[in-house]
Design goal:
- This protein has a four-stranded antiparallel beta sheet.
- The protein has one helix at residues 41-46, and strands at residues 7-18, 22-30, 33-40, 54-59.
- By secondary structure, the chain is mostly beta strands.
Length: 69
């Protein structure tokens, strides 16, 4: 797999919460570290996503904001 995005995080699907149109996918990228993505239900089905499957969370953003208290 080749993509132009620079931020690719490998992990395993931990949880899938399907909705009528979208699905929420929780990916564990390290023990106790999770990334959540909302994708279309059809994309979830087309990718054959299921709990335990190895996947990549690919982040494409032009800015990364930082905040402090």
């Amino acid at each position: 797999m080749k993509v132009s995005a620079r931020n690719s995080l490998k992990g395993k699907v931990k949880q899938i919460t399907p909705g009528s149109v979208n699905a929420e996918i929780v990916i564990e990228i390290a023990p106790g570290v999770e990334v959540t993505s909302i994708i279309t239900k059809s994309s979830c089905e087309n990718l054959g996503l299921e709990v335990g499957k190895e996947v990549y969370a690919i982040v494409k953003a032009t800015d990364v904001l930082i905040g402090v208290d």
